[in-house]
Design brief:
It is built from ten helices and 14 strands. By secondary structure, it is of the alpha/beta class. Helix 9 runs parallel beside helix 10. The longest helix is centred in the last third of the chain and has 23 residues. The radius of gyration is 22 Å and the shape is elongated. The structure holds phosphoenolpyruvate and manganese (II) ion. The site of phosphoenolpyruvate has 9 residues, from loops. The site of phosphoenolpyruvate (PEP) has 9 residues, from loops.
């Protein structure tokens, strides 16, 4: 249940009302104070709450019952967009277009440094690269692990780009201490123990959509992280399993406006894993920007043919130059269109 508070209500009146709600109905009350309005979100069993009683209270403007099981990720509880700001100043969800680019896997120092410099020059705002890789086959390259993390940090030092990399186990959280954004991959979207632990840290989490997950399941996974106190969640649509085999996955672009209506969290799109084909990345990246995504995640490799993972979907740095230029131009155009 959410309760919209009347304008002009004093802090004392609000605090008294909240205590009454908590004591009378045994619910937890979350407060969201916006510029124009104050909204209370009631968490717990609200079935016994008498709506007439609530409406009769002097401080109440109106109330709404929320059907969705997610509260903290719900836009009804938090009408303004969440903007995630890194300690280094970069913002996600503020209307700018964030571009996370880099190889699927960190392979060696020369490779990651070269790709980092090239994507930065093209306009990327974050460097991505996998050190711990979730591979379908146990015999496939599993990543450079801790050495990969060190190489990413080296590339960050060289370029100044914050780093985004995937975590697979709870016991690695300490090792990821100096990573700027921790990615939870599609295969771990419902690794609830991992999500709960990530909820206890103060670091942005990039939560990819599960291979066969509904939007509500995805938002519930975000809720797991947020329930622990970490509100810095960025969602990433990366394609879902359908009957179609022409592409690696089916990019569900409508997830972008759907997320925007259901949640206040920023949402980015990964056209690389969604299509599995380098030739399709530009078109779908542009489409994602037109659909209102807050950013993109794109795989870029110095030598895609010889990449140790996901070569077929990786752009060369030259191809990325073109894609970055086009998406940034379209992003500006979209702003003009929306202002018109
Ligand atoms: C990745 O980003 O390299 C990755 C493995 O992505 P996903 O979890 O979306 O498959
Ligand atoms: Mn990949």
């Amino acid at each position: 249940m959410i309760i919209v508070i009347k304008q002009g209500v004093t802090k004392e009146q609000l605090s008294l009302f909240k205590t009454t709600l908590e004591e009378r109905f045994h619910v937890k009350v979350n407060t969201w104070e916006g510029v124009e309005s104050t909204v209370l979100g009631l968490i717990g069993d609200t079935t016994s709450i008498d709506e007439d009683w609530v409406n009769a209270q002097e401080v109440v403007e109106n109330l709404r019952r929320v059907q969705e099981p997610y509260k903290k990720a719900n836009r009804k509880f938090h009408p303004d967009n969440t903007i995630i700001e890194l300690p280094t100043g970069q913002k996600i969800g503020d209307g700018s277009l964030c571009i996370m680019a880099g190889p699927c896997s960190v392979e060696n120092e020369e490779q990651i440094n070269y790709v980092a410099e090239r994507v930065k020059a093209a306009g990327a705002t974050f460097l991505r690269g996998g050190a711990f890789k979730p591979r379908t086959s146990p015999y496939a390259f599993q990543g450079l692990k801790a050495e990969g993390l060190d190489l990413l940090k080296g590339a960050r030092k060289l370029t100044g780009l914050p780093i985004v990399t995937e975590i697979m186990r709870v016991s690695h959280i300490d090792m990821f201490e100096s990573v700027d954004i921790i990615q939870v991959g599609a295969r771990n979207m419902q690794n609830f123990e991992l999500l709960k632990e990530l909820g206890k840290i103060d670091k942005p989490i990039l939560l990819k959509r599960g291979l066969s997950s509904t939007i509500d399941e995805w938002l519930m996974s975000a809720e797991y992280i947020m329930a622990g106190g970490n509100n810095k969640v960025i969602l990433c649509e990366r394609g879902i399993r359908t009957f179609e085999t022409a592409t690696r996955n089916t990019l569900d672009l409508s997830a972008v406006p759907v997320i925007k209506s259901k949640s206040h969290l920023p949402v980015i799109v990964d056209p690389s894993h969604a299509t599995g084909k380098a030739a399709l990345v530009e078109t779908m990246a542009l489409a994602a920007v037109a659909a209102g995504a807050d950013g993109l995640m794109i795989e870029v490799h110095n030598d895609p043919k010889h990449a140790l993972s996901d070569g077929a979907q990786s752009l060369t740095p030259d191809q990325f130059d073109t894609v970055a230029r086009k998406v940034l131009t379209l992003h500006q155009t979209m702003k003009t269109i929306h202002q018109a």
